[in-house]
Write a structure and sequence with these properties.
single chain, mainly alpha
Length: 84
């Protein structure tokens, strides 16, 4: 299933960013919050696709937009997909 591959890529990205934070000894609080919100954005997009509400392509940029902007980001992506 394609969602398993994308989920694996997100997990690998999270591990890579945490590893970079550990290597550079930087404060990871902001990065971790951004990663968690992006993961939640990806889950919202997957839920929309599974329940057939609207098809939104699942990629890291869309997950970041929904995770960072929240509901306005979801509305923005929905408008972009329906118009374009």
């Amino acid at each position: 299933m394609i969602y398993a591959e994308i989920l694996t890529a997100f997990i690998a990205g999270i591990i890579l960013i945490l590893l970079c934070c550990w290597l550079f000894k930087s404060k990871c609080k902001w990065y971790i919050r951004l990663l968690l919100s992006s993961a939640l954005g990806a889950l919202v997009i997957v839920a929309f696709n599974v329940f057939g509400i609207i098809y939104l392509p699942l990629n890291p940029m869309n997950a970041f937009i929904v995770g960072f902007l929240g509901v306005p980001g979801l509305i923005l992506l929905t408008l972009i997909v329906t118009v374009l």
